Amino acid sequence: MAGDRVALTFDDGPDPRTTPRVLTVLDERGLRATFFVLGAAVARSGSLAAEVVAAGHELGVHGFRHEHHLLRGPGWVLEDLRRAVGVVGEATGQAPRWFRPPYGQLAAGSLRAARALGLEVVLWSVWGKEFADPELERIRRRLASGLRPGAVVLLHDSDLAAPAGTGARTVALLPGLAEDLAVRGLRAERLDRVAA
Ligand SMILES: [Zn+2]
Question: Which SUPFAM superfamilies does the record match to this protein (predicted)?
């Protein structure tokens, strides 16, 4: 039972330009989240990945590279995910539990690779589309319309696989999202505390 909890999730980081700012707002507002990281970004910014975990958040894997799994063979996907799991483990000392494929593309090979590596696949139930919309108020309403117990909210803490400005827009959205959660009696949590 999700109770009063909503899973807050961020894709495409960690990004030294924006992820620290996201962490600051989450801390100020008492929000917890799961970050679906790119292995290549963790390899560059391992200490930032460790900082995310030390701040009480959780890491899942989004792939080593941000590629369309439907255009890749099962062997490529398995190797990519294995690398991602490896660098997350090295950076944080923790084995990731969750996997969200890039673009939400669930190829047969993605599912097989997840099973082989013991990862649980997670998509989302509400997103802001903040990567494609400059209007903060419209994004806020889009997110608010999907807030209910057990919802999985998708935002991006990074521009690494999204248009420039996406991560900064997420930073700007978080205080409003925190208010919208509070008025509904909901709180943002890590996936492992929503899905448990
Ligand atoms: Zn992504």
Answer: Glycoside hydrolase/deacetylase
Is 68 among the catalytic positions?
A: no
Pick the CATH number of 5-194 from 3.20.20.370, 1.10.10.10, 3.40.50.300, 3.40.1190.20: 3.20.20.370
**Closest alpha carbon to 154 in 118, 105, 103, 111:** 103
Q: What is the pLDDT of residue 84?
A: 98
Ligand 1: centre distance to CA 151 (Å): 19
- Catalytic pick from 11, 15, 157, 159? 11
**Res 196: pLDDT:** 65
Distance, CA 101 to ligand 1 centroid (Å)? 7
Give the angle subtended at the CA of 138 by the CAs of 184 and 100, to the nearest 5°: 75
Is 11 catalytic? The answer is: yes
Q: Which tens digits make up the pLDDT trace of 28-43?
A: 999 999 999 999 999 9
The parts of the chain modelled with pLDDT lower than 50 are none
Mean pLDDT of the chain: 96
Q: Cβ distance 76 to 101 under 8 Å? A: no
Check 57, 62, 156, 157 and give the catalytic one.
156
